[in-house]
C-alpha cells in the first residue's frame, strides 16, 4: 500500500520514493482531505533538497538560536 494517496505502486519512481519515506528522508505533505500526498511531479526547491541531504547524511536535528 502506498504511503501517499497521489502515488500508486505503478508510478514511476514509486520504489525510490517509498525508500525515502521508510528511511525518514522525505515526508511529503498533508493534503486538503487530511491524507498524505507526495506531489511527485512538483519541482523541488533548494531548501527541500538540502533537508533531504541533511536527513540522508544522518545529521539528526539542529537547533537554530
Helix content percent band: 25-40%
What is the terminal-to-terminal distance? 40 Å
**Arithmetic mean of pLDDT:** 87
Into which percentage range does the β-strand content fall? 5-15%
Number of strands: 2
What is the topology, as strand order, of the major beta sheet? 1-2
Decide which structural class fits the backbone: mainly alpha
Largest sheet: 2 strands, antiparallel
Number of helices: 2
Name the shape in a single word. Answer: globular
| Unreliable stretches covering 5 or more consecutive residues | none
Q: Secondary-structure element order, as H and E?
A: HEEH
Organism: Litorihabitans aurantiacus
Protein name: SLH domain-containing protein
Domain SLH: 1-65
List keywords for this structure.
2 helices, SLH domain-containing protein, SLH_dom, 6% strand, two-stranded antiparallel sheet, 65 residues
Description of the molecule:
The mean pLDDT is 87. With 65 residues, the chain is mainly alpha-helical. It has helices spanning 14-22, 46-56, and strands at 29-30, 36-37. It has a two-stranded antiparallel sheet with strand order 1-2. Strand 1 (29-30) and strand 2 form a beta hairpin.
Topology at a glance:
Elements: H1 14-22, E1 29-30, E2 36-37, H2 46-56
Antiparallel strand pairs: 1-2
Organism: Litorihabitans aurantiacus
Protein name: SLH domain-containing protein
Domain SLH: 1-65
